[in-house]
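We emphasize that the prediction below concerns an isolated chain of 133 residues; any contacts that depend on oligomerization or on bound cofactors are therefore not represented. The input was used exactly as deposited, without trimming of termini.
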Amino acid sequence: MQDHELIERPGRGWTPWKEGTGGSDIDKVWWAARCLHFAKLNVSCWFDGSDLVGIEHWGYRRQQWCMKRPPADHPPMPEVYRLERERERQEALDRIRIAAQTRPLAAIERTGKRQSAPDVSAVWNSGRQERAL
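Result of the prediction step, given as a token string:
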């Protein structure tokens, strides 16, 4: 596939170009499609079998996407796939939460103590003692 073939809309039976990233929108309709990223072209393409069903431009081009319109007899996403994708998303969120919680704990373990403001009473008492002298 060449760069000039990806710049133009592929032809009839395709949705119009839309602004932004369309990965999740394409995945909702073409649930069996697999995404391939072409970094040198700044393009991601979704293939259902050997058919090109979605294109997304990103990077130095403005972000836009289009996808092939599904046929009338296109099957909906099976419940098993939907549940699996939800589970994968939840696991990813859990990994992010765990990483966010362990970062401060690791910093505390490295320093051996919690990082806090200096003891205010010690500063206050030393100031009063200097004034008394």
